């Protein structure tokens, strides 16, 4: 037992890096995927095309491939600039995760009835003002559960950063294993740490989903509850 | 790029495909078992089932893979890297497949079950002969989507030294130094493999849905 406590103390340092990595990634992913989803529904065709192309392309590339490419490829160029492996991992994660979240946001934006757009147009609002004043306020709350689910995916996927020299919790555990030769026990403790991080977020997200589904906010504007066909982002 | 390197990458692609297919079968079968168990609604089974699903959804696939490969190895059960990847990715994905089945079960009207019971079928018989066959059209599109996902997550097997595409790619990069070229080939192969599949699934999904509503 004392052994486990000392492991947790060591892993805590890595856990903080995991949390930082996930937090930065989540923030930038929300910003970038909002932009992407707005581009995907913009009235300007080339922009729409580019956004859809980006989403399709990014979603067909394995995250690990992107991380490795950034680390070994861009790393050589960015190292002299003082950009660490941590920020390279954030960049790769953001570029990849945004494609998934943007698709979800796009669906949410499209769930606003066309009559809302028509009403805004009849009031003389342009596209940008319609989005800002009419559409976004309606989807803001509805987007929260899917954003939380995406954050869960980001935390899980941040473990891949251990393979490109980011000293987050999985890498810390792997180093610990090389010292203790007890992979089963150490990795089980690691799994418990991930559970402790993720399960609360999952509970909040499910709670919110249910609240919104019950017609609080604009839950009733959405399609009737259907099997969640859009899988959570895979690694 | 030499043709040797290209052949090597393609061989890696075959291994990746093998891992994804294996994991997909594990996920589809285990997911069905989990969903049926939950549906049968025996309280203790249900509690175990739901905590298992939560656990599998919350632990990164990489950690599961390490547990199966290094963890089991240390307690004397040697699993080769490809099999470990198939099991780890399949088991992790089963938690999601179970949800697809469960959602599919909800599309079957209660009267179908009642009719099954009135014919003298057992609860398991009703599930396997009445409910599950009717759910198949609804679960095929999401399961195909998860196959596309598995094709991508199969690259994690590189972390335990399975000779899949990314692992061979990394070796080729350090051997030839042609980083951008190797990476471009990998990305092109991935786009060629997954994009048509994703599109096909989207079409299928739309058809299933319009068929169900019509």
Q: Which geometry of chain A do the CA atoms define? A: globular
Determine and state the CATH class of chain B: Mainly Alpha
Q: What is the count of DSSP helices of chain B, taking H or I runs of 4+ residues? A: 8
Task: Figure out the total of helices of chain A.
Answer: 9
Instruction: Give the total of domains of chain B.
Output: 1
User: What is the helix/strand order of chain A?
Assistant: HHHHHHHHH
Write the layout of secondary structure elements.
The complex is a heterodimer of chains A (235) and B (214).
Chain A: H1 2-40, H2 45-59, H3 63-78, H4 85-110, H5 114-122, H6 127-139, H7 144-157, H8 169-180, H9 183-213
Chain B: H1 3-40, H2 43-58, H3 61-74, H4 81-105, H5 110-118, H6 123-153, H7 165-176, H8 179-213
Helix pairs in contact in B: 1-2, 1-4, 1-6, 1-7, 2-4, 3-4, 4-6, 5-6, 6-8, 7-8
Can you give a write-up of this model?
The complex is a heterodimer of chains A (235) and B (214). Chain A has one domain (2-221): MetI-like (MetI-like fold, Orthogonal Bundle). The two termini of chain A are 33 Å apart. Chain A is built from 9 helices and no strands. In chain A, α1 runs antiparallel to α8 (169-180), α3 (63-78) packs across α4 and α8 runs antiparallel to α9. Chain A is an all-alpha fold. Chain A is 74% helix and 0% strand. With 214 residues, chain B is mainly α. Chains A and B meet through α2, α3, α7, α8 and α9 of A and α2, α3, α4, α6 and α7 of B.
Keywords:
A: 235 residues; mainly alpha; B: mainly alpha; 8 helices
Task: Give a quick rundown of the structure.
The complex is a heterodimer of chains A (235) and B (214). With 235 residues, chain A is an all-alpha fold.
């Amino acid at each position: 037992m004392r052994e486990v406590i000392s492991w947790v103390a060591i892993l805590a340092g890595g856990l903080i890096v995991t949390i930082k990595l996930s937090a930065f990634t989540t923030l930038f992913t929300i910003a970038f995927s909002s932009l992407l989803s707005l581009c995907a529904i913009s009235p300007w065709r080339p922009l729409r095309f580019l956004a859809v192309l980006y989403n399709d392309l990014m979603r067909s590339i394995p995250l690990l491939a992107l991380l490795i490419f950034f680390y070994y490829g861009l790393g050589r160029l960015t190292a002299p600039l003082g950009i660490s492996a941590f920020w390279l991992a954030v960049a790769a994660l953001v570029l990849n995760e945004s494609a998934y979240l943007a698709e979800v946001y796009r669906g949410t934006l499209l769930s606003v009835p066309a009559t809302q757009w028509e009403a805004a147009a009849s009031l003389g609002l342009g596209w940008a003002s319609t989005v800002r004043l009419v559409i976004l306020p309606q989807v803001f709350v509805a987007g929260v559960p899917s954003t939380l689910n995406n954050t869960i995916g980001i935390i899980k996927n941040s473990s891949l950063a251990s393979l490109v020299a980011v000293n987050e919790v999985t890498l810390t555990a792997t180093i610990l294993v090389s010292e203790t030769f007890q992979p089963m026990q150490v990795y089980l403790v690691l799994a418990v740490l991930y559970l402790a991080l993720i399960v609360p977020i999952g509970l909040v997200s499910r709670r919110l989903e249910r609240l919104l589904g019950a017609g609080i906010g604009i839950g009733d504007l959405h399609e009737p509850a259907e099997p969640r066909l859009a899988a959570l982002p895979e690694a | 790029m030499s043709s040797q390197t290209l052949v090597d990458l393609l061989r890696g692609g075959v291994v990746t495909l093998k891992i994804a297919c294996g994991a997909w079968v594990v996920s589809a079968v285990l997911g069905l078992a989990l969903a049926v168990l939950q549906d049968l609604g025996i309280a203790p089974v249900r509690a175990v089932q739901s905590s298992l699903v939560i656990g599998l959804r919350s632990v990164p696939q990489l950690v599961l893979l390490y547990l199966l490969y290094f963890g089991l190895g240390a307690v004397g059960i040697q699993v080769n890297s490809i099999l470990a990847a198939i099991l780890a990715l399949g088991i992790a994905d089963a938690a999601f497949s179970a949800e697809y089945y469960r959602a599919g079960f909800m599309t079957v009207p209660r009267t179908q079950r009642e009719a099954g019971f009135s014919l003298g079928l057992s609860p398991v018989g009703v599930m396997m002969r009445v409910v599950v066959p009717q759910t198949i059209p609804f679960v095929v599109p999401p399961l195909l989507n998860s196959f596309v996902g598995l094709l991508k997550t199969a690259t994690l097997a590189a972390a335990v030294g399975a000779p899949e595409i990314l692992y061979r790619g990394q070796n080729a990069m350090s051997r030839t130094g042609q980083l951008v070229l190797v990476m471009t080939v990998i990305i092109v192969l991935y786009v060629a493999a997954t994009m048509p599949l994703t599109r096909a699934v989207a079409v299928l999904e739309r058809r299933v849905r319009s068929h169900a509503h019509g």
